[in-house]
Structure formats: C-alpha cells, structure tokens
C-alpha cells in the first residue's frame, strides 16, 4: 500500500499543499473529499460519532484512528485512550497534533495481553474486516481485546438504498455479489493511485446475527440521517 490517505493527512497537518482525496468504488463513480473533514472537531462530527464518544469510558482503544480527531477529543476529556492505525503517515500526524498514545498497529495482530473497556471503530468501522466472510474472525479478535464488562462501539451503513428496485419492489442486486455491502475501493491522491482494497458496509441485522454467532450481544444505539447507525457490542451473558 502507498498509504495515500495517510500522506494526505500528514500533508494537511504539516501544511504541505494538501489536495482533495479522490475515492472510487465498484459501486460508485469518482468522488472527492477534502482532507480537512478528517480533522473536524466534535461539533462538526455526525451524531452517531458524537454519541459513541459520549459512551466511551474506562480504558479505550481507537481502532483505525486516522487523523486522530476522536482520540484527541477523548484525551482532552482526560480519558485513558490508546489509538492505533496501520498508516505510518497518519500516526505521525496524530503525534504532531499532540496525541500521546498512538502507534502503527493492525488490530488483527494486536496482542490481547491488554484488554479494553471500550473499543471504538468509527467512520464505518465494519469496513476494516474487508469482506463479510471475515467478520467472524474480526469479531472474535475484538472480543479477545474486551474486558468482561467492556463494549465495542462500531458504526456502519445499510447501502441497500444504492441499488435499483426491480418490478416487484425488491432491490436488484447483481448475481456476482456475495453480499451487497461488499465494495472494492480505490483511492487517488496527488496523481498517485492506491492499490485497490476490499471494504464492507454491514447492515444492522447482519451485524447483529454475526455478533450473536460469535458470543456478543448487539444493541442498536443510534441511527443516523442516511441509513447509517451506531451499534454497541458486549459479551453475551449466558
């Protein structure tokens, strides 16, 4: 990976002529996003992100922290926050912003010798598992990092609205798609193109079923304005 999103984040932080990030998926045409959006303050965050930060407590792990905006807010509140991201550039930007406990780390290889009371996965946290058939392993890993009374706060969207309706009023989904929420993402920045990567949006019912199958309780905490939602996962009580 060329770490282009991380490069955009670091460019913005260091005032190195940042440009818009161009994203394109197997379902959508090219679209541009200002990297400034990743540096937004609490007041400018969507309601489901604000709610997640309100619920965060105890020892907190921010997975895929990006520019670190969520972690910085919690740090300023005096909470015990650890942030991780696979992007070296993003982590460097976080450090420059003043985030104290941030490291380059893939959550799937994170040691479970330390457990957390809150695990945050925001800005479509389900996307990190890539494909639906990887969600069991993904949830099992998160579960191993969770204290007995801990919580996983994760958001996603149901993108069924993006598909056309058929004659019967149902949605027409191409037969070659294993799950309609699975996309292939491509990112361009400053004339460079990132290697394509898998990304998945998981609808709430599917996430709930996967959570239960992996020993986790799933609660719908808040729904956003555009098919997005925040879920809270906890250990399933027998």
From TrEMBL:
<protein>
    <submittedName>
        <fullName>Class I SAM-dependent methyltransferase</fullName>
    </submittedName>
</protein>
<dbReference type="GO" id="GO:0032259">
    <property type="term" value="P:methylation"/>
</dbReference>
<dbReference type="GO" id="GO:0008168">
    <property type="term" value="F:methyltransferase activity"/>
</dbReference>
<keyword id="KW-0489">Methyltransferase</keyword>
<dbReference type="Pfam" id="PF13847">
    <property type="entry name" value="Methyltransf_31"/>
</dbReference>
<feature type="domain" description="Methyltransferase">
    <location>
        <begin position="58"/>
        <end position="187"/>
    </location>
</feature>
<keyword id="KW-0949">S-adenosyl-L-methionine</keyword>
<keyword id="KW-0808">Transferase</keyword>
<dbReference type="InterPro" id="IPR029063">
    <property type="entry name" value="SAM-dependent_MTases_sf"/>
</dbReference>
<dbReference type="InterPro" id="IPR025714">
    <property type="entry name" value="Methyltranfer_dom"/>
</dbReference>
């Amino acid at each position: 990976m060329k770490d282009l999103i991380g490069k955009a984040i670091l460019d913005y932080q260091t005032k190195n002529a940042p440009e818009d990030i161009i994203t394109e998926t197997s379902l959508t045409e090219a679209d541009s996003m200002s990297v400034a959006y990743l540096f937004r303050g609490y007041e400018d965050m969507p309601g489901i992100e604000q709610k997640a930060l309100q619920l965060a407590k105890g020892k907190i792990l921010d997975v895929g922290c990006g520019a670190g905006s969520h972690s910085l807010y919690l740090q300023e509140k005096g909470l015990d926050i650890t942030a991780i991201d696979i992007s070296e550039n993003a982590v460097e930007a976080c450090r420059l912003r003043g985030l104290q406990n941030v490291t380059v780390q893939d959550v799937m290889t994170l040691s479970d010798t330390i457990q957390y009371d809150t695990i945050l996965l925001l800005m479509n946290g389900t996307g990190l598992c890539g494909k639906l058939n990887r969600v069991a392993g993904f949830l099992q890993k998160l579960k191993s990092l969770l204290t007995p009374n801990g919580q996983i706060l994760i958001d996603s969207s149901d993108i069924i609205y993006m598909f056309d309706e058929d004659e019967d009023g149902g949605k027409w989904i191409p037969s070659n798609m294993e799950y309609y929420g699975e996309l292939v993402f491509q990112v361009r920045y400053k004339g460079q193109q990132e290697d394509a990567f898998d990304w998945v949006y998981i609808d709430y019912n599917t996430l709930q079923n996967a959570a239960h199958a992996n020993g986790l309780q799933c609660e719908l905490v808040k729904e956003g304005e555009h098919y997005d939602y925040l879920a809270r996962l906890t250990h399933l009580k027998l």
